[in-house]
Amino acid sequence: MHRFREQARSRIGFGLFVKLRAFIEYSMSQPIGQLAYVLHSRAYRESSALVDFLTPQGRLRAVLRSARGKAGTLARPFVPLEVEFRGRGELKNVGRMESSGTSTWLVGEALFSGLYLNELLIRLLPSEDPHPGVFDHYAATLLALAEGRPLEPLLRSFEWRLLDDLGYGFALNTDIHGEPIAPDGLYRLQVDAGLERVYLLQPGLFNGTELLAMAEADWSAPGALSAAKRLMRQALAVHLGGRPLVSRELFRKP
């Protein structure tokens, strides 16, 4: 009898172990919610939407079912979300989507700036390439835009951070030969290398004083902001493949 009880207890223990292991494996296979922002959304088939998300794990594209319902009202830019993504392929499915904070309300040029950031990320950020620093800087920039802080420093800072995180950054206080930037020097950007000193006047040059101000993010220096805008345009252009950014046109409309 004793032997029978031991065998029964052993069977019960093994059964619980099997169930526990199955539960753990099931739990590990379930998608985990990720913080996310919608970068862009467009209609897809009858009632779905194809949505580009920014997450700490990179840019993800997913199909949102029943996009005309409650989920569709959340799938708009500048709303902090928690999203469960399902599927192993490049095109995911949205399993669950909930608001994870207060929406950022942008109007006027702040709204145009937010749309510019979104387009920049869609064009430059590779799919499923984790850049948690870019995600955090994006969220902080949206809040700063909503607070009404000056646009140009925010945009230049975000452009620079994005380029640097993607491996396209370059030094602002030394040239391509490692020499310190001279305040009275003239420089041109070699996109694949950095800043090169030149001694003949030509279009698109930057003076050393402006570059040193950019390196310190000293936007009070005369000409620093306008020079930073030219520099970022030159740096971004090659990575945009010659295709203009549609969102830039918003700033030109009366």
Write the layout of secondary structure elements.
Elements: H1 2-29, E1 34-44, E2 48-55, E3 58-64, H2 70-74, E4 81-86, E5 91-99, H3 108-124, H4 132-146, H5 151-165, E6 186-190, E7 194-198, E8 206-207, H6 208-215, H7 224-237
Parallel strand pairs: 3-5
Antiparallel strand pairs: 1-2, 1-4, 2-3, 4-5, 6-7, 6-8
Number of helices: 7
What fraction of the residues are assigned to beta strands by DSSP?
Answer: 15-25%
Main sheet attributes: strand count, strand direction, barrel closure: 5 strands, mixed, barrel
Strand order of the largest sheet: 1-2-3-5-4
Class from helix and strand fractions: alpha+beta
Average of the residue pLDDT scores: 86
CATH superfamily of the largest domain: Nucleic acid-binding proteins
CATH architecture of the largest domain: Beta Barrel
Tell me roughly what share of residues is in helical segments.
40-55%
H/E series:
HEEEHEEHHHEEEHH
The number of domains: 3
Overall geometry comes to elongated
What is the CA-CA span between the terminal residues?
Answer: 93 Å
**Poorly predicted parts:** 17-30
* Radius of gyration computed on alpha carbons: 25 Å
CATH topology of the largest domain: OB fold (Dihydrolipoamide Acetyltransferase, E2P)
Tell me how many strands there are. 8
**CATH class division of the largest domain:** Mainly Beta
